[in-house]
Design a protein that fits this description.
The chain has 15 helices and 11 strands. 40% of the residues lie in helices and 14% in strands. The protein is α/β, with parallel strands linked by helices. It is globular. It starts with 12 loop residues before the first strand and ends with a helix. Helix 3 crosses helix 4 (110-121), helix 7 packs across helix 9 and helix 9 crosses helix 11 (288-294). Strands 1-10-9-8-11-3-2 form a 7-stranded mixed sheet, with helices on both faces. The chain has a 4-stranded parallel sheet with strand order 6-5-4-7, sandwiched between helices. Strand 5, helix 5 (136-143) and strand 6 form a beta-alpha-beta unit.
Length: 373
C-alpha cells in the first residue's frame, strides 16, 4: 500500500512557534579536543541525498551517518567516552581507593555496548542491565565487549532502576544516559559528549557552502539526551537565523511528545517497537527544560514508516537502523497527509531549505532491521 493510500488518521504532532527564540549556554569547548585525541576518532560522514530533497520539496538534504562511530555502529560512544573520562578523573582526584571500578548502566543496546567498550579499553569492569525486547544479537554484542549482562524481564525504566541499585556499591559508578533528580552530573557529561557530532555538522556543511547552518534538523528521540545536545548547540548561538528542530519518537513510546503536549514531563507505558533504542517511557530530567524550550516540533511514527525509511536509505547507500531512519520517517510524516502545508510552514521550510537528518545508528546496531520482527 502506498503511503498516500493509507486511511487518514490524526498525526501525533506538537508544535511550539516560540522555540527558535529560546536560548541557552553552549557545550564546553574541550569536548571536541578530547574526542580528537582518541586513536579511532574520525568525523562521521555527512552525505547529501538529492533525491530526498526532491521528494521533500526542499533545497538540500544531508544525512549524518553514525553507522561507524569510534568503532561502534551508533553515535552513543561520543557520550559514553567523555562521561567515563570525566567520572574516572573525578574519582581519582577524590583520592578514593585505587583499582578498577565497575561501570554500571541500563541500555536498549547502543549505550550499553559503548560503556562496555570504554570500560574494557580503560581496564575497568562493566555491568549492563538490558530490558525485555532487546534483540539477542544486540545482547550478545554487549557480552562480546567483556561486560556482565543482566537481562531484566521488564521495560527500560525498570532496567534503569535496577542498574541504579546495583551501582550503589562503593566500587561501582553508574554511567546512565538519562537523568533524574539527584542523578544529573554524569548524564550531563554524556550530553556534552554528543556536542562533537553537532560541531562536525557545522564544519561539513560549511565545506558544502552552507555557512549559516541548517534550516531544520530531525532528531530521533528516546529519553531526549541527544536532542538536548542538539538544542544546546543550535540554541546557544547568540544571533542569526535559528534552525528548526524536530524530534521523532515511536508511536508506542512517545514520552517527549506526550510531555510537550501536557506541558510537563510525564512517563508513558511503552509497547513493543523495532525502534528499540527509542523505546523509553520517561524523558531525562536534565533534557526536559531544553526539549520544552528549544524544540520546534515533535512527531511520532509507526514501525512500518521507520522500516520503509531504513530501506530507502539502504538503497541510497546509507546503513541506517530503525532508530536512525526515524529522522527521515518523522520528517516525511510531517510533510505529507492532512495539514502538511501547515506543518511545513510551522517548520519554516521552503524550496531552498537545507535539512539535516540524524541517522543515529547503522543496521548492525539493531538486528531488528534485518530480522524483520
Amino acid at each position: 500500500m502506498f503511503e498516500n493510500d493509507r486511511p487518514s488518521r490524526t498525526l501525533p504532532w506538537f508544535v511550539r512557534p516560540a522555540a527558535r527564540a529560546w536560548r541557552c549556554a553552549p557545550a564546553p569547548a574541550e569536548v571536541r579536543g578530547f574526542h580528537f585525541s582518541l586513536p579511532d576518532y574520525a568525523p562521521t560522514p555527512l552525505t547529501e541525498i538529492p533525491s530526498l530533497a526532491a521528494e521533500l520539496e526542499v533545497g538540500r538534504v544531508f544525512v549524518k551517518d553514525e553507522s561507524y562511530r569510534l568503532g561502534l555502529p551508533a553515535f552513543k560512544a561520543l557520550g559514553a567516552s567523555w562521561a567515563i573520562h570525566r567520572a574516572l578523573a573525578e574519582r581519582a582526584a577524590s583520592a578514593r581507593e585505587p583499582g578498577p571500578v565497575t561501570l554500571v548502566t541500563a541500555t536498549d543496546g547502543n549505550h550499553g555496548r559503548a560503556v562496555a567498550r570504554m570500560a574494557h579499553r580503560l581496564g575497568q569492569h562493566a555491568h549492563v542491565f538490558v530490558p525485555q525486547g532487546v534483540h539477542p544479537q544486540a545482547v550478545a554484542a554487549i557480552v562480546a565487549e567483556q561486560a556482565k549482562v543482566t537481562e531484566v524481564p521488564g521495560p527500560y525504566d525498570e532496567a534503569v532502576r535496577l542498574a541504579a541499585e546495583e551501582a550503589a556499591a562503593p566500587d561501582a559508578v553508574l554511567v546512565q544516559d538519562t537523568a533524574w533528580p539527584g542523578y544529573e552530573q554524569i548524564p550531563g557529561w554524556i550530553v556534552e559528549g554528543y556536542s562533537t557530532l553537532c560541531a562536525e555538522i557545522d564544519e561539513q556543511l560549511a565545506a558544502e557552502g552552507v555557512t549559516t547552518g541548517p534550516d531544520l534538523v530531525s532528531i530521533p528521540v528516546g529519553v531526549g539526551s541527544l536532542a538536548q545536545a542538539v538544542v544546546t548547540h543550535y540554541r546557544s548561538r547568540p544571533s542569526g537565523r535559528a534552525s528548526a528542530l524536530l524530534s521523532v519518537e515511536p508511536e508506542s513510546a512517545a514520552c517527549v511528545l506526550e510531555s510537550l503536549t501536557l506541558g510537563a514531563p510525564v512517563s508513558v507505558t511503552t509497547g513493543d517497537t523495532t525502534m528499540a533504542g527509542l523505546n523509553c517511557g520517561t524523558p531525562s530530567s536534565i533534557a526536559w527544560p531544553y526539549l520544552c524550550g528549544g524544540l520546534d516540533a515533535a512527531v511520532a511514527v509507526a514501525d512500518a514508516d521507520s522500516a520503509r525509511a531504513a530501506g530507502d536509505l539502504a538503497a541510497l547507500g546509507i546503513s541506517s537502523g530503525p532508530c536512525g531512519a526515524a529522522s527521515l520517517a518523522g520528517l516525511r510524516a510531517a510533510l505529507t497527509g492532512a495539514d502538511a502545508e501547515e506543518r511545513r510552514t510551522a517548520l519554516g521550510l521552503g524550496p531552498s531549505s537545507v535539512v539535516v537528518l540524524l541517522s543515529t545508528e547503522g543496521t548492525a546496531a539493531n538486528p531488528h532491521s534485518t530480522t524483520g520482527h
